[in-house]
Amino acid sequence: MKPLLSVRGLEASYGDLKVLRGLDFSIAEGSVTALLGANGAGKTTTLRALCGMIARSGEIEFDGRSIGRARTEDIVRLGIAHVPEGRGTFFNLTVEENLELGAMSRPAGRELTTDIQRIYGYFPRLEERRRQQAGTLSGGEQQMLAIGRALMLKPRLMLLDEPSFGLAPLIVEEVFRILAHVRETMKVSMLLVEQNANFALALADHAYLLETGEIAIAGPAEEIRNNESIRNAYLGY
Q1: What is the DSSP annotation of 119-135?
Q2: Which DSSP symbol is given to 168?
Q3: Strand order in the sheet with 80-83
Q4: pLDDT tens-digit series, residues 184-207
Q5: Is 181's pLDDT higher than 70?
Q6: Which entry of 44, 51, 79, 234 is 20 to 30 Å from 158 by CA?
Q7: Cα(223)–Cα(118) distance, rounded to whole angstroms?
């Protein structure tokens, strides 16, 4: 079966600083893939390169279509949603207005209300705060809103950058539980960048470990999670 996303020879730089050095990886449809590594390994840069947010080279195919030269807005329209580190909510807008923005690239229609209610089903706390300004939400609620807004696109692939960042352990557990539920109910593929390797590997099917812009190890997530030498050398637990 052809992968949903296929990447070959991906390189990216910030000015003269080369960050990615020829990455090759793929994501199967309906799967969760974890992208792990130390700070500065190139994980966030990989997501930005896939979204067209920075200059990159190499071959990127989404559902058999080349998107290596596509603009960010065109990539979004194809069904790739990016949840950036730091959540990226629109602080001055309400929760519901943020969710409506997530559907901007979709054709207008009556499904909008139904989809918002679906997001509230995943995140009941957002429904309780639907008229509240996003900037007044807790960190965990803002993360839920960022994920909910991305889901309003009805994406085929979600790029998640550090969804546990700055959250209390119990909130992290809740966010990952919801991601697992979303994967099962919406059949959304995910590329997950995450410092909490234990949570990431428990959710993922496959994992890639980056080291200084190159893939050091790749394999089934369960095998990497159970390999003590890999955990000690690369994951710090």
Answers
A1: HHHH-HHHHHTTTSBGG
A2: -
A3: 80-83, 157-161, 189-193, 32-36, 206-211, 214-220
A4: 999 999 999 998 999 999 999 999
A5: yes
A6: 234
A7: 34
Alpha helices in 7-161 (DSSP H): 43-50, 72-77, 95-102, 111-122, 124-128, 139-151
Collapsing DSSP states into helix, strand and coil, what is residue 237? Answer: coil
Sorting pLDDT into bands at 50, 70 and 90, what band is 237?
Answer: low
Give the helix ranges, DSSP H, for the chain: 43-50, 72-77, 95-102, 111-122, 124-128, 139-151, 169-186, 197-203, 221-226, 228-230
Beta bridge partners of 82: 159
User: What's at 179, amino acid-wise?
Assistant: L
List the one residue out of 34, 27, 28, 5 whose CA is nearest residue 209. 34
User: Scanning the structure block, which residue is given the tokens 């957002």?
Assistant: 126
Which residues partner with 161 through β-bridges? 193
Is this model's pTM higher than 0.90 or not? yes
State how far the Cα of 143 lies from the Cα of 214, in Å rounded to an integer: 29
